Amino acid sequence: MDDPRNWQALYRELSQVIGRSATRQLYHYFRGMQVSFPQRLLDSHREADLMYQEYCRGSSVTRLAQRHNYSERSVRRILTKFRE
């Protein structure tokens, strides 16, 4: 049970990233469930707030797009919605 070579491929990969102990904890907590991880770490409303704050402090739309991994068009749309 403790040898990752005997584990399912997903758990072997996880153990290489987060370690054996954390992998076992995830297994016991989530086993049998399907878990998907959102592509973005930040909550969309909070990220919009952060982007607006940065914009107000002088960050350009181009810089915000690069920093937050959005297109400039998306940044403009987010800032417009945030102002409303």
TrEMBL record:
Location of the Mor transcription activator domain: 10-83
InterPro entries in the record: Homeodomain-like_sf (IPR009057), Mor_transcription_activator (IPR014875)
Pfam families registered for this protein in UniProt: Mor
Gene3D superfamilies from the UniProt entry: Homeodomain-like
SUPFAM superfamilies: Homeodomain-like (SSF46689)
Transmembrane stretches, start-end: none
Protein's name in the database: Mor transcription activator domain-containing protein
